[in-house]
From TrEMBL:
GO biological process, one term: bacterial-type flagellum-dependent cell motility
Name used for this protein in its record: Flagellar hook-basal body complex protein FliE
Organism: Paenibacillus lactis 154
Any single GO CC term annotated in Swiss-Prot or TrEMBL for this entry: bacterial-type flagellum basal body
Keyword Lyase assigned: no
PANTHER family: FLAGELLAR HOOK-BASAL BODY COMPLEX PROTEIN FLIE, PTHR34653
InterPro entries: FliE (IPR001624)
Protein family according to the UniProt entry: Belongs to the FliE family.
NCBIfam families: fliE
GO molecular function, one term: cytoskeletal motor activity
Main location class: other
Swiss-Prot/TrEMBL keywords: Bacterial flagellum, Cell projection, Cilium, Flagellum
Localization per record: Bacterial flagellum basal body
Length: 103
């Protein structure tokens, strides 16, 4: 008789279902408010990156920062603005598609 000593069965216990924590569902008004605050925070972040790019550009002109630091800041701001524009375009497309749907 071959015994498997690699896995000890003494430490194995049967699986038991855990009680799931009850998650309070949000009302539609609360979810819209949280989405609105998320969107507002994202737009504020993009605006802050754009302002930082302007500050870095000004500092580069007077010689306080290197050209590469200013360019990195400008590219980050540009990418953020491009992403925001693409998200806006997708939202507009989705809205137009919903409005074309016939009921």
């Amino acid at each position: 008789m071959i015994q498997n000593t690699m896995f000890q069965a003494s430490g194995v216990s049967p699986l038991q279902m855990r009680e799931q924590a009850t998650v309070a569902e949000k009302t539609p008004a609360e979810s819209i408010r949280s989405f609105g605050s998320y969107l507002s925070d994202a737009l504020n972040s993009v605006s802050a990156q754009e302002q930082q790019a302007h500050v870095m550009s000004d500092k580069m002109m007077i010689g306080q920062v290197n050209v590469d630091q200013a360019m990195i800041s400008a590219q980050q701001a540009l990418l953020s603005i491009q992403l925001t524009t693409q998200v806006r375009n997708k939202v507009v497309e989705a809205y137009q598609e919903i409005m074309r749907t016939q009921i």
